[in-house]
Amino acid sequence: MALDTTDGIEPAALAADAWVRPEWDRAALLTIDTQLDFIEGGVSPIPGTAAVLPAIAGLAAAFRAAGRPIVHVVRLYDGPDVDLVRRTLVDGGAPIARPGSAGSQPAPQILPDGAPRLDPDALLGGAFQPLGPGEWAMWKPRWGAFHRTGLEDFLRELGVSTVVVAGCNFPNCPRAAILGASERDFRVVAAADAISGVDGRHLEEAARIGALHAPAQAIVAAVAGSPHPVST
């Protein structure tokens, strides 16, 4: 699993470090904010998100095939519980990720066959909504997937030690998910070509806190080699 060379980091040593090396038989996939409103053609598009959808879909398919858990982390903007920087927009009626709206739904390419629509009442109440075997949706109120959510406990109960992060707009929510996972002593892998808005500097910075990165194809191969069914 290659890392870019950065000042102060020895990539080979970091990738070989027993404390940060991925445990693929205990890995979960987190897809971050990969919702229709944030994809080109949506009401608040993030450039490049449509381009990474095939890679995210490939990761999801691989994790399903290996019986590894997948959590689709979503934003829903309802009432005053909104990031300060977006409150003016939301208070003004901007139709961004409104509960129950078509645009709030995850991109269908990344979901299992027959997945139900999001249940906003359950999600806003903190529930992990089943979307398929070993696959759930969850709501986060701010940038980070672990902030004010039950994600850490949920993953621990599934025996997860390693999280793979993919999805929408690295500078905001994927970055926060990587930091939150690292702070909680999860091993972290950023799917470098399955995150919109990412660049080499972002990956260098993530490496400084022990988060490895790899292309989706390499992650798919690693997960396929370590099947370990998750109970539902």
Written description of the protein model:
It is built from 8 helices and 7 strands, in the order αβαβααββαβαβαβα. By secondary structure, the protein is an alpha/beta fold. It has a 7-stranded mixed β-sheet, sandwiched between helices. The longest helix has 17 residues, at 49-65. 43% of the residues are buried.
List the helices and strands and how they pair.
Elements lengths: L10 H6 L10 E6 L16 H17 L4 E5 L9 H8 L28 H5 L4 E4 L2 E5 L11 H7 L4 E6 L5 H11 L3 E9 L4 H8 L4 E3 L1 H9 L8
Parallel strand pairs: 1-2, 1-5, 2-4, 5-6, 6-7
Antiparallel strand pairs: 3-4
Helix pairs in contact: 2-8
Instruction: Characterize the biggest β-sheet.
Output: 7 strands, mixed
User: What Rg do the Cα atoms give?
Assistant: 17 Å
Estimate the strand proportion: 15-25%
Number of helical regions: 8
Question: Which class of secondary structure composition applies to the elements?
Answer: alpha/beta
User: What form results from the Cα inertia axes?
Assistant: globular
Spatial ordering of strands, largest sheet = 3-4-2-1-5-6-7
Helix content: 25-40%
Instruction: Give the SSE string.
Output: HEHEHHEEHEHEHEH
Overall pLDDT, averaged? 92
Name the poorly predicted regions. 1-10, 228-232
Number of strands: 7
Distance between the termini: 30 Å
